[in-house]
Amino acid sequence: MSENDMTLGRYLEAARQDAGLSLRQLAEAADVQLTIVARLMRDEVKKPAPAVLMRLAPVLELRTSDLFLVAGLPTPTDLPSVEALLRAEYDLPEDAVAEAKQQIEAIVARYKATGSNREEGNHGTSKHH
Asked: What torsion, rounded to 10 degrees, do the Cα atoms 107, 109, 113, 116 define?
């Protein structure tokens, strides 16, 4: 099967099998009705609810953005702010977020001032995307 043949149901089913979960276990762990999970697995849902996919993703150790992409749902094209990332990813209090942001800004300013590029800072990683 080519990657273009990957449906949401097939993607979820593969992840469920990799996780070693039954449909019932997945539904219970994600707090989603069993019938909804079963219908998703059979590709019977034309437009899956984003909230359902957001509940399934961590249980299946998948990225929510990957599920949205496979399901044909819109995904953000911009990156989160440093503050939002620090809060969400690390559960930092506001004073720690502010301190971390200051440190990041100082590092950025230092690299801009010295003219250092990504190649020097990343041991050979290309600056080109």
From this structure: 40
Q: What is the DSSP string of 70-127?
A: HHT-----SPPPHHHHHHHHH---HHHHHHHHHHHHHHHHHHHHHT--HHHHTTT--S
Total Cβ atoms within 10 A of residue 67: 24
Opening angle at CA 40, ends 34 and 44, nearest 5: 115
CA pair distance 92, 64, nearest whole angstrom: 22
- DSSP letter assigned to residue 79: P
pTM (whole model) above 0.70:
no
C-alpha angle 19-60-15 in degrees, rounded to nearest 5: 60
Give which of 16, 27, 28, 7 is closest to 62, Cα–Cα: 16
Residues 99 and 36: beta-carbon distance below 8 Å: no
What are the φ/ψ torsions at residue 93 (nearest 5 degrees)? -70, 165
For residue 106, count other CB atoms closer than 10 A to its CB: 10
Give tens-digit pLDDT for 73-124.
998 888 788 888 888 888 888 899 999 999 999 999 999 888 766 554 444 4
